[in-house]
Predict the structure of Poly(A) polymerase I.
Amino acid sequence: MLYRLKKAGFSAYLVGGCVRDLLLGREPKDFDVTTDARPEQIRDLFRSCRLVGRRFRLAHLRFGREIIETATFRGPPEEGLSENGRIVSDNVYGTLEQDAWRRDFSVNALYYNIRDFSVVDYTRGMEDLEAGRLRLIGDPVTRYREDPVRMLRAVRFAAKLGFTLHPDSETPIWELAPSLQEIPSARLFEEILKLFLGGCAVQTFELLRRFNLFRWLFPQTEACLGEEEQGFPRIFLAQALNNTDARIAAGKPVTPAFLFAALLWEPVRKLTERYQQEGVPEFQAMREAAEAVLANQTNHVALPRRFSLPMREIWYLQPRFAYRRGKRPLRLLQHPRFRAAYDFLLLRAQSGEDQEELCQWWTEFQEMGEKERLRLVRVSTKSRRRKPRKRVDKPVASTEV
């Protein structure tokens, strides 16, 4: 692709995370390209090209299952700043050097030149890379105000790379953290997935709390963290995030619904207890608490229905584990969300909730044969049928006169 652009008379460079990771000896997750070709010119060169983006047009080039994101060099924004300094329009093209100064962090502004196999560095990114330092390009306050999501990106890269934030890039975050409220909740949802599903969820969580960012993403959970009881819910969250990192490291799938169910469990649990103290039945209390917590959360971070529904089911099934007689445990075992709910119960037990005996029972129950299960819960193997009522013939009315 790079050579086709070059052959057509354009300049083209690998840029960003792929160059950074290659220099660090890591395997890049994906490859990004930047060029002086305009989006329409890129589309004319590649049949597999699709143009995307509103704020800034990008070309997506498909090669088999891979998509290579290609962007035209960006220049400084001429217009399109909101009152608080956010960039709302960004279709301004520029030179390679202008493009470098528009990028977020110096270690992400390194360009690999295929003409002479060199690395182009305008922002001292190589120096920061060698020092293990993450430094925002330009004035940090201005750059964070342009796009508050950069604060979340700072945390994500610091956790992922094991880098320290430059003091000038770190200090403004505490003051500007509330500006995350200006970001659409749907965009924040996507950013949270990147934060917690990158294999460094525990470190990310600690940094989010350290920089006062977590409270603007999960205010209800943050309020509970301020009322810790013997390390709970902090231990619960740490265990959930540790498990997430372990699954990612092992190449196993991670369900966002399970992660969000864990992140919001403590607010749901506490509100359920409060409703029960007010006389609301257990199952109804759980449902009302879940709805209230989710309604509040969506004001901050959007939760798509495809995730909020399984979250509810994971929570709703927790009280049902306590019922171990009759047909209830058999029905629960057949529930499509049983495995996720059971794993959630194990997580609660591992974190110090008094659920060890219950977990042991359900672990053994799953391993039993059908007859053993029926015997344990004392359900008769014979189906009970109602005896048919005897038919009583009604007297026939006499037709005789």
